[in-house]
Every structure is written in structure tokens, then in C-alpha cells.
Design goal:
Layout (H helix, E strand, L loop, with lengths): L1 H25 L10 H7 L6 H12 L14 E7 L7 E2 H11 L1 H4 E4 L2 E6 L6 E6 L2 E4 L12 E3 L3 E7 L5 E8 L12 H8 L16 H22 L1
Parallel strand pairs: 1-9
Antiparallel strand pairs: 1-2, 3-6, 4-5, 5-8, 6-7, 8-9
């Protein structure tokens, strides 16, 4: 028993030493500078403090409000716009109409998997957060009957802008990593259409494909690199 206790002490000391060694290693190089959050928020004139704004953002994204789809648009400011990577800006009426026509929650069991809510210190009325949506196809969508297929959308970064009354002025989202998921790198409604095999007939609603000009430039760049390499070794 004594030998076991002794080994435990030695092992613990080794782990502590290793941790200290790692700590010393990572602090020897200069760290990337960060925004002074305390000073930025102290200087802000926006009346809703960051912690309360994050709570409000989570309420707006929650199941009782659904960014205006469950409360008749009561959470949306009159000058609200939806502005994503390629869609919008859509005004309030058009946004609510579009979501009503999709009826995503009737066709999919959706787990949004939100995380990382934080207030932008450079724009203190904006909340940023991430989502990694996973959905199951449970009802007819775009003419496709329920398949039970699991749709994994790529990671997306969202933003919500609020006015001083806590109403949403703008929402938008952007794909953060188009390599992940099984919807062709597409997020939002585009991802659901593509995921059930019914992509919308526009380039923006299909997986990214480099343009002819871009592919040509890449080819020229690769040729130039090979030529430069031969010239260097000559």
C-alpha cells in the first residue's frame, strides 16, 4: 500500500511539472492582442448591457419567439432586415412571408445546437453566436416525402442587431466551414432544399463551384510556380 501511495505522489508531481512546463512554453511567445472589453463596453452608449443583450438574443432564438415566426413578428423592429451571405436585405414583411412558406419545422426535427453567444465590443448592439444544426427529415418538403435522413448543416455564424428597446433590427448568418456537413456546404433554407435532393435552380443555392476565370487563374498560378521551381534548381 505504501508503494502504491508513493507512486501516486510521484505521478502527481510529474503531472504538475508537465503542466508547469507547458504553461512556461506557451507564455514565452507574445500573445495576440485583444480588444479591451471592459473599456469598450464602459464607453458604449447602448442602453442594454452585454449580459442582458445575450439573454435577449437567446430568447429571440428560442422556441417561443423563433426570430419572429412564433410571436407574429412582435420581436422585430419596423425597420428590420434579414441579410445573409447571398440573400437580402429582406424587409420585415418579406422575411416573415418567406419563412412561413418554407414551414421547415413541419418537415424537419431540428436541433440548432447554438453556442458561443457574445456581444461585439466594436458594435455593442450586435450579438454573435454559432450554430451547428442537425435535422431529421420527418415530413414532406419540396415535394419529397419524409425520408428519415439526417441533415448536418455546416457550422454557421449568426448575428443579431438590436435597437435600444430590445427589438431585432437585423439578423444574418454565414457558413463558417463549407467542408463540413452533408448539405454541400450550404446553410439556411438552401441546405434543406439541397439535403432532400431538391436544390433551388440558382447557383447560390448549389455547392460552391469555382468560376471559369478563377480556375484559369489558379491554373496559371500553378504553372508559374512549377516554372519558378525549375528556374531555381537550374
Amino acid at each position: 500500500m505504501r508503494s502504491i501511495a508513493f507512486l501516486s505522489i510521484v505521478f502527481s508531481a510529474y503531472q504538475l511539472g508537465s503542466a508547469n512546463e507547458f504553461s512556461d512554453t506557451v507564455t514565452t511567445s507574445a500573445l495576440a492582442p485583444l480588444v479591451d472589453l471592459k473599456a469598450s463596453f464602459a464607453a458604449s452608449t447602448f442602453p442594454i448591457v452585454p449580459d442582458d443583450l445575450i439573454v435577449r438574443a437567446r430568447e429571440v432564438m428560442g422556441p417561443d419567439i423563433g426570430v419572429g415566426t412564433k410571436d407574429g413578428g412582435a420581436c422585430l423592429a419596423e425597420d428590420f432586415v434579414f441579410c445573409a451571405a447571398v440573400v437580402g436585405p429582406l424587409p420585415r414583411v418579406d422575411y416573415l412571408g418567406a419563412l412561413e412558406s418554407f414551414k421547415l419545422e413541419e418537415s424537419f426535427d431540428i436541433d440548432q445546437n447554438f453556442f458561443g453567444f457574445n456581444v461585439d465590443p466594436m458594435q455593442p448592439n450586435r450579438v454573435w453566436f454559432m450554430g451547428r444544426s442537425v435535422s431529421k427529415h420527418i415530413g414532406t418538403f419540396a415535394g419529397v416525402e419524409a425520408t428519415g435522413k439526417e441533415l448536418v448543416l455546416p457550422p454557421q455564424i449568426f448575428h443579431l442587431d438590436f435597437n435600444d428597446k430590445g427589438l431585432v433590427k437585423e439578423i444574418g448568418f454565414y457558413t463558417a466551414d463549407r467542408k463540413l456537413g452533408n448539405t454541400g456546404g450550404l446553410g439556411g433554407a438552401f441546405g434543406y432544399f439541397y439535403g432532400v435532393g431538391k436544390p433551388l435552380p440558382i447557383p447560390e443555392a448549389k455547392p460552391f463551384k469555382p468560376s471559369f476565370r478563377f480556375r484559369t487563374l489558379m491554373m496559371i498560378g500553378n504553372i508559374a510556380k512549377k516554372f519558378q521551381g525549375k528556374k531555381t534548381t537550374a
